[in-house]
Amino acid sequence: MSGSKPEFLCFTGHRAFTQRLVLATLTGRPVHISKIRSSSPTNPGLAPHEVSFLRLLEAVTNGSVIDVSYSGTTITYQPGLITGTTPGAGASLATDAIEHVVPANCTRSVTYFLLPLALLAPFSKAHMNVRFTGPGVITSATSATTGDLSIDTFRTAVLPLYGLFGIPPARIELRVLSRSCPGPGGRGGGGVVEMRFASQVRLPKTLHLNRRPGRIRRIRGVAYCTGVSASHNSRMITAARGVLNQLVTDVHVAAQYDPAPLVADKGSTQKKKIGIGFGLSLVAESSADGVLYSADEVAPPQGGVVPEDIGTRCAYQLLEVIAQGGCVTGAAAPTVLTLMAMGSEDVGRLRLGREVVAREEIIGLARDLKQFGASSWGIRDAGDDEGAGDLIISVKGTGVGNVGRKVA
């Protein structure tokens, strides 16, 4: 072996933190990230959810080296092999899963961890079984500032898209053992979620999703509440149906009620209820296979919002997402585009709305993929009357594939 040091890709800031670490892990390229909230006078460096994600990344890989500076504003990451859940390597014998404890001061939904974890799971050497526990697990959506999806939207609008790449969704199991909403100040929740990802592949299939999106044929959803009256669910559903039934007749929203989780106070044996709240997740299914649109709305932790407002807002938000056009929403587009770039060395095509392509996250993803060795995207107009503002994104796969399977 050569004694030369690996060449690091350099980034600055905390934007796209998980995205860059996921790309580094998939491609095997080490990264150096500096100036992480270095200008913040009160909370410089890594946030609690980012530290927690680093620990999760260390648990599902073998040989990863993570160095964080004393101030937390600089990190170097040398990725290892994605091993998943292997016996004797941190997995619990009782549950056959890696137990990841989320700290109480976490302000992000559990989907902040699940989205990147699901991107790594198809390229794992073994099954990826992870259980999220602890006082910081939030299963609902979070505020507009973070924009995290709820666990229901992740299950019904993101996981089914893996089937388009030859990754069977039937072998992906997501269990919500305890629900929770953001606690006081948006911190903590106390939920329990378990993901079992048993669909490992050598290479994702090339995707061609450039057809017309079609028309909405039905709308499904979940209204959830924890620690409040179960009537909140019916009030949200009635308000949402009042908007949607004028446009689509096939609307069905399930109601889910859970007691608020009990979490022990720090430094005492007494437990208190946190994660109290309510929210709504809606998913619209198109007549074209594989086309899904989703919307999330949750009551703020400080309260002051009635269930009817949540239902109406979520319904109108869903209509706005549908009006943006394309075959994939802005929330799911980074997942789909990353899988396209990691697939076989062929050109895949994806139809997206102009507003989705213009989002900061999508432009940043294109730049990051380019830095990690992927080809530039080709962009052209869809060229049909339906969805006149849509664009066709052409992505050439890098053929990186599953290194663990290659070794095996």
Automatic annotation (TrEMBL):
Residues 212-322 form the RNA 3'-terminal phosphate cyclase insert domain. GO terms for cellular component: nucleolus. One of its GO terms (biological process) is endonucleolytic cleavage of tricistronic rRNA transcript (SSU-rRNA, 5.8S rRNA, LSU-rRNA). InterPro entries: RNA3'-term_phos_cycl_insert (IPR013791), RNA3'_phos_cyclase_dom (IPR023797), RNA3'_phos_cyclase_dom_sf (IPR037136), RNA3'_term_phos_cyc (IPR000228), RNA3'_term_phos_cyc_type_2 (IPR016443), RNA3'P_cycl/enolpyr_Trfase_a/b (IPR013792), RPTC_insert (IPR036553). It is found in: Nucleus, Nucleolus. Pfam families: RTC, RTC_insert. This is RNA 3'-terminal phosphate cyclase/enolpyruvate transferase. Coiled coil: none annotated. Residues 11-345 form the RNA 3'-terminal phosphate cyclase domain. GO terms for molecular function: RNA endonuclease activity; transferase activity. Belongs to the RNA 3'-terminal cyclase family. Type 2 subfamily. Keywords: Nucleus, Ribosome biogenesis, Transferase.
